[in-house]
Amino acid sequence: MTTTRTFPEGFLWGGAIAANQAEGAWNVAGKGISTADTAMNKKNISKSDYKKQNAVSSEQLAAALEDQSTVNYPKRRGIDFYHRYPEDLALMGEMGIKTLRTSIAWTRIFPNGNETQPNEEGLLFYDRLLDEMIKNGIEPLVTLSHYEMPMYLVDHYGGWTSREVVDIFVRFTTTVFNRYKDKVKYWITFNEIDGIVRHPFTNGGIVPDRFENVEQAVYQALHHQFIASAYAVKLCHEIIPDAQIGCMLTSLLHYPHTCNPLDVLAAHKNNQFNLFFTDVQVRGTYPGYIERYFREQGITIEKAEGDSDLLKEYTADFISFSYYNSFVASADSEGLETVSGNTMGGVKNPYLPVSDWGWQIDPIGLRLALNHLYSRYQVPLFIVENGLGAYDNVEEDGTISDPYRIEYLRSHIEQMHEALLDGVEIMGYTVWGIIDLISYSSSEMEKRYGLIHVDQDNDGNGTLERRRKESFFWYQNLISNNGL
Ligand code: BG6
Fold first, then answer.
1. Which residues cross the membrane (predicted)?
2. 142 with 184: CB under 8 angstroms?
3. Positive or negative CA dihedral for 445, 446, 447, 452?
């Protein structure tokens, strides 16, 4: 017998962006310089060289802080969402999305991070933005920290390695909860919190050449983020009792290369490590396998009194995650063909096609990820990033036909529906880069995720005009039928 369970009433179909990749206006209205503003365009680095794409040095940062030109730092200009949000939100409203995930740039509210008073102009910007979303029938879903922090905290505190940054972040969090408590009912603490182990600067403000033992610094910083996230949960429940707040993970599903138990073990270890972050944020304790890893690597985490209770008591209400691709693990990958993603790679899976950027496309992996997460934690899940980065072509008549994107989204949504039939509780689904924006890893514009096209190239040339792609109409229709 087949079940035809539909998407639940109120399912949050939506789109996702991040402040640092869309807003631009990096130095207006009192905004301070953030880590994202130092990211140069990396289109000349090979697509598969994700390590180089994510590398950061003191020398590079010093040059970025001196360089006031906007040409090579695409996130400084974004897609000018800062000024064009009314038009963009009207288009998204027309598309019918129920929610928009975006983030608040910490540096708009506290330019250096450690001020005691917030920057009113920055707060006003988000007042206007959130009001405009609501006006267009779009429920705000807000990430507190999406791949950026004040550069001042990097240079003067060593980023998240300093415990003081927890208090500084709590001040920021308290400020925005109090200010936007009537407008925002869905919050996310740290975007892809696990990313700190792969790109310490982006997530943790850690400049590797400033630390003797980078891994030790990374796990200390991560502990501080776990604590800051627990405080955010506590504060959110106190200040906005009718809101929900979730953690956020990059889903990095690994298959074994063969059925050799050693390959199975390699895949198991990778999957287990991927869930370490949610184990802490949802189960509330550091799991045994990671304590073992710390012992074996000589890593010691400094914890303050009360930390364990805090983690146990203030766990996330839901798990949100990004899903783009799956990976293959082998106990001995010597000589095997490899593929990459934006922050990591692995052995090639011969059964899967790849995107223009070499990412493996695996819709069934989404169903598996949903099932794994739900059976382990039994809390609602929210897919807050899924989408295809691809080259798009604007026809002479101005139309943009992107059947490859439609097929990517359609096949993933189909598998999400399968997971729903499997009994998985899913709150919503937001397409990453609902509007073309600056890519995270390579800071380029050509890698387009949007259902709305933005006329801008890698060097910032273009009219910034917005156009509806074929996928815009497809998603509009899908939402109006609640996914079926
Ligand atoms: C996720 C990030 O890792 O992947 C986004 O949360 C990012 O910020 C997205 O944009 C896609 O990666 P990229 O490098 O192609 O932009």
1. none
2. yes
3. positive
Nearest atom of ligand 1 to the alpha carbon of 387: 11
Instruction: Indicate which residue's Cα is closest to atom 8 of ligand 1.
Output: 440
- From the list 359, 324, 313, the residue with the least C-alpha distance to 340 is 359
* Tokens linked to 381: 């899940």
Ligand 1 centroid to 215 CA: how many Å? Answer: 23
User: How high is the mean pLDDT of the chain?
Assistant: 95
430 closest CA partner among 391, 479, 468: 479
Q: Tens digit of pLDDT for each residue in 386-409?
A: 999 999 999 999 999 999 999 999
Report the candidate in 354, 223, 351, 362 with the shortest Cα–Cα distance to residue 281.
223
Of 3.30.70.920, 3.20.20.80, 3.40.50.980, 3.40.50.720, the CATH number of 12-480 is 3.20.20.80
Q: What is the ipTM of this complex?
A: 0.99
Catalytic residues: 385
* pTM flag (> 0.90): yes
State which amino acid sits at residue 404: Y
Percentage of residues of the chain with pLDDT beyond 70? 99
How sure is the predictor about 70, in pLDDT bands with cuts at 50, 70 and 90?
low
- Contacts of residues 53-56 at CB distance under 8 Å and 24 or more positions apart, as own/partner, are 53/342, 53/441, 53/442, 54/198, 54/199, 54/201, 54/202, 54/343, 54/441, 56/201, 56/207, 56/208
Q: Is the CB of 432 under 6 A from ligand 1?
A: yes
Task: Using the structure block, give the residue that is written with the tokens 């040059």.
Answer: 63
Nearest CA residue ID for atom 10, ligand 1: 440
Q: Which atom of ligand 1 is nearest to the CA of 195?
A: 3
pLDDT in tens, 117-146: 999 999 999 999 999 999 999 999 999 999
